[in-house]
Write a structure and sequence with these properties.
Layout (H helix, E strand, L loop, with lengths): L1 H12 L11 H12 L2 H5 L1 H34 L17 H22 L2 H18 L11 H6 L2 H10 L9 H25 L2 H7 L8 H25 L3 H5 L1 H17 L1 H5 L8 H19 L2
Helix pairs in contact: 2-8, 4-5, 4-6, 5-6, 6-8, 8-9, 9-11, 9-13, 11-13
Length: 303
C-alpha cells in the first residue's frame, strides 16, 4: 500500500492532466495541410495518422520533462503558494533523483524517435521546446523571475508547439505573421495568469511564489495584456489578408469578444486565469469556441 501511494505521488508530480496542452501541435499540422497542401496524406492516411500520434507522444514527453524541471526548480517557491505548497516534492514526500531519472529517460526517448522517424526541423523544434523550459526555470538565467520576459518566453511554447506540428510533414518555414499572432495570443493568456496572481495572492504569497510579481504593477500588467491583444489582432489581420482569408476578417468582432471575455475572467477568477482551459467547461464559452473554430476552417476552405 505504501509503495502504491508513493507511485501515485510521483505520477501526480508529472502533471499528466496537462496532456491536452500538447494538442497545440495539431493547429500547426492542420494549417500546414491547408496552406501548403497535403496530397501525400490521401495516399497513406493510416501512416499519416500514426505519424501524427507519434509526434504528439514526443511532444508530450518533452512537455512532461519540462514539468519535471519546473517541479524541481520551483519547489522552494511553491511553498509560498496556497495550493501548490501541497505538492509532494514541496512536502518532501518524494525524491528528486527519481523524477530526474524519469525526465532523462523520456527526453532521450523523444529525441531518439524524432531522429529516427522525422525531419531534422522537427527534431530541432523539440529541442527548442526543451531549451525554453530550461531557460525559463533553471538558474542562473531563470527567466521566470524577470518581469515581462517571463510571460514572453513562457508563451513562446505556443509557436514552438505549432512548429512541431507544422514539421510533422516537413514543410517550409510558415508565415511569420501567423507565428507572431500565435505567440501573442499565448502571451495574452500568460499575462492574464499574472494579473490573477497579482490580484488574488497576498504580498507574502506572491513575492515568495513568483519573484517577478513583486516588480509588476497591476496597471502595467493590464496595459501589457491589452497591448499583447492588439499585437495579436494586427498580425492576425495581416496573415488573414495576405492569404485572402476574408471570413476571418469578418469574424474579427467575435474574436475581440472572445479576448474580452478572458480578460474579464482574469480580473475576477484566479483559477480560470491560471488554467485557461477551465473556461471550456462553461457550455456557452465552449460553444463560442466551437463556432470560431468552424469559421476558421470555413475561411480556408472558401478562399
Amino acid at each position: 500500500m505504501l509503495e502504491k501511494y508513493k507511485i501515485q505521488l510521483y505520477v501526480a508530480s508529472l502533471r499528466l492532466e496537462r496532456w491536452p496542452r500538447s494538442l497545440a501541435i495539431f493547429p500547426g499540422l492542420v494549417l500546414a495541410l491547408l496552406l501548403e497542401g497535403g496530397s501525400g496524406v490521401h495516399n497513406a492516411p493510416a501512416s499519416f495518422l500514426i505519424r501524427s500520434l507519434v509526434a504528439f507522444f514526443c511532444t508530450w514527453m518533452i512537455s512532461t520533462a519540462n514539468y519535471i524541471v519546473n517541479e524541481i526548480t520551483d519547489a522552494p517557491y511553491d511553498a509560498f503558494h496556497p495550493q501548490k505548497r501541497e505538492r509532494p516534492l514541496v512536502q518532501k514526500q518524494i525524491r528528486r533523483r527519481f523524477l530526474i531519472l524519469f525526465g532523462l529517460l523520456i527526453t532521450a526517448t523523444a529525441f531518439f524517435i524524432a531522429i529516427r522517424f522525422f525531419s531534422w526541423s522537427f527534431f530541432y523544434a523539440l529541442m527548442v521546446l526543451l531549451g525554453a523550459g530550461i531557460l525559463y526555470n533553471v538558474k542562473p538565467i531563470r527567466i521566470k523571475d524577470i518581469p515581462y520576459l517571463d510571460s514572453i518566453l513562457e508563451s513562446a511554447n505556443n509557436p514552438i508547439r505549432f512548429l512541431i506540428g507544422w514539421y510533422i510533414l516537413n514543410f517550409r518555414f510558415p508565415d511569420l505573421a501567423l507565428l507572431i499572432s500565435w505567440w501573442a495570443f499565448g502571451n495574452f493568456l500568460m499575462v492574464g495568469k499574472r494579473v490573477a496572481e497579482k490580484k488574488f495572492l497576498t504580498d507574502e504569497e506572491s513575492t515568495g511564489y513568483r519573484k517577478s510579481l513583486a516588480k509588476y504593477s497591476m496597471p502595467g500588467l493590464v496595459g501589457f495584456m491589452i497591448g499583447t491583444a492588439l499585437l495579436f489582432l494586427v498580425f492576425f489581420i495581416s496573415f488573414a489578408l495576405r492569404f485572402q482569408l476574408l471570413m476571418l476578417v469578418y469574424a474579427l468582432p467575435l474574436i475581440i469578444v472572445y479576448l474580452v471575455i478572458f480578460m474579464r475572467k482574469s480580473l475576477q477568477d484566479r483559477d480560470t486565469a491560471e488554467e485557461p482551459e477551465r473556461l471550456l467547461k462553461n457550455p456557452y464559452f465552449a460553444a463560442f469556441t466551437f463556432v470560431l473554430m468552424i469559421l476558421f476552417i470555413l475561411a480556408f476552405l472558401s478562399r
